[in-house]
Amino acid sequence: MIEIDNTLSLSRAGIDTYRQPVVFMREDCHVCRAEGFAALTRIEVTLGDRSVIATLNVLTEGDWLPEDTAALSEEAWSVLNPEPGDRASFTHPEPPASVSAIRAKVYGDALEQDQFDAIIRDVLDRRLSDLDLAAFITACAGDRLSIPETIALTRSMQAAGTTLDWGSTAIYDKHCVGGLPGNRTTPIVVSIVAAAGLMIPKTSSRAITSPAGTADTMEVMAPVSLDAATLRRVVEAECGCIAWGGNLALSPADDVLIRIERPLDFDSDGQLVASVLSKKAAVGAKRVLIDVPVGPTAKVRSAETARALEQRLCAVGDAIGLTLSIHQSDGTAPVGRGIGPALEAQDVLAVLRRDEGAPADLRDRALDLAGALLDLAPETREAGGRAAAARLLDSGRAEAKFMAICEAQGGFSEPGEARYHAVVTSRAAGRLAAMDNRRIARTAKLAGAPRQKLAGLRLLARVGDRIDIGRPLFEIHAETLGELEYARSYAEAQCGLCTIEEDRE
């Protein structure tokens, strides 16, 4: 019997493939020829007792990679953690068990609990390619995921990770479904609720399709990459935290799905609900407030859509033991003045510090949400949640609690300012009738947000304002001149970004 040498030396490619394990081989490599590997083939790479399933990229020209060597992306390298001189074996992996379930969903079949369990297991074992994951996400988009399927997916996602146990302590949480630039209420709400003595271990994601997520904004002011032990220490000391969920393995499959959703630039109601509620259950929460902004250019565009989402949220919440309160809010225009991590952090601090020029809309929204959460608690309900929230904010107790949380998470930092600024002015006179949330968000992203923490927009006019020709509408902040010009060109070409109803004689 002839043994085939399917091993290669390993080198570090030094290429970030954003959590996707990738292996690079020459097309004339003996393993490529013997195994019949081609570009985008899924390959199982084994080194001792460690293995990873990676996607193959083939080098057709150039000599940067020796013939007897495979190069690993940063993600694959971190999983295998090879020593100098190590050789790994390369084989075809067993076909993922869940591919048939994904195919069934693509063709419109309803999936059962065991099928979702298999998909989530294969997601975490990296057995599914990005094409498989994109097919699954697309097949579940729109109304293609029923409420029973959403419940099953939520349970699968929670069961695949860690669930925090706080004993008999009542745990509170809140979440916004998103789609409204600048709506950074979470740090304010957590500070108020924690100042009231309620436990609120808030974990948040980074931005998926927006210019900033709560974790992006909070990271400007304090560390957010907490492990479970640090999170517990912070919460037990201060009653609350504002942490990034990616280090905690609370619903780890969701982080993989988010990686695929980001370039696709869409969410589905079923996956949104499964993502949100699996993480709420995993953090140990029992009483949860969900903010649903509704507006023509928000993520949720109509009252009818909001009602359908509320029905799905409540059905899943009941099934997994959560008490939900759904709060519909105005999603017709951006909130506050800043859009982008540092600019939103400045707004948060202005509200907490009770600055005279703090954005009133952000303050009011935060008080509404904090009050609704306090109304869920027997010990604060009778006093009137919103009034209690206002007292905690106006007295400075919320600010003090926020600073204590920051210090417990690793220390507070003041938000900085971007290097380059450019003002976009009005070409018409009249009343500012509307601002397009999606185009405003797009402009901030083109300026570099959230990747560049100091980038984004500062709004200089509000819906309802009287506008003269040449009046500044917003200011673009960027860290490079190229991004500044890119964002400004886009904004100036978008006639619907700010709608001005011109004066009529």
UniProtKB/TrEMBL annotation:
<dbReference type="InterPro" id="IPR028579">
    <property type="entry name" value="Thym_Pase_Put"/>
</dbReference>
<keyword id="KW-0328">Glycosyltransferase</keyword>
<dbReference type="InterPro" id="IPR017459">
    <property type="entry name" value="Glycosyl_Trfase_fam3_N_dom"/>
</dbReference>
<dbReference type="InterPro" id="IPR013466">
    <property type="entry name" value="Thymidine/AMP_Pase"/>
</dbReference>
<feature type="domain" description="Pyrimidine nucleoside phosphorylase C-terminal">
    <location>
        <begin position="431"/>
        <end position="496"/>
    </location>
</feature>
<dbReference type="InterPro" id="IPR035902">
    <property type="entry name" value="Nuc_phospho_transferase"/>
</dbReference>
<dbReference type="InterPro" id="IPR036320">
    <property type="entry name" value="Glycosyl_Trfase_fam3_N_dom_sf"/>
</dbReference>
<dbReference type="InterPro" id="IPR000312">
    <property type="entry name" value="Glycosyl_Trfase_fam3"/>
</dbReference>
<dbReference type="InterPro" id="IPR036566">
    <property type="entry name" value="PYNP-like_C_sf"/>
</dbReference>
<keyword id="KW-0808">Transferase</keyword>
<dbReference type="InterPro" id="IPR000053">
    <property type="entry name" value="Thymidine/pyrmidine_PPase"/>
</dbReference>
<dbReference type="InterPro" id="IPR017872">
    <property type="entry name" value="Pyrmidine_PPase_CS"/>
</dbReference>
<dbReference type="InterPro" id="IPR013102">
    <property type="entry name" value="PYNP_C"/>
</dbReference>
<protein>
    <recommendedName>
        <fullName>Putative thymidine phosphorylase</fullName>
        <ecNumber>2.4.2.4</ecNumber>
    </recommendedName>
</protein>
<comment type="similarity">
    <text>Belongs to the thymidine/pyrimidine-nucleoside phosphorylase family. Type 2 subfamily.</text>
</comment>
<dbReference type="Pfam" id="PF00591">
    <property type="entry name" value="Glycos_transf_3"/>
</dbReference>
<dbReference type="Pfam" id="PF02885">
    <property type="entry name" value="Glycos_trans_3N"/>
</dbReference>
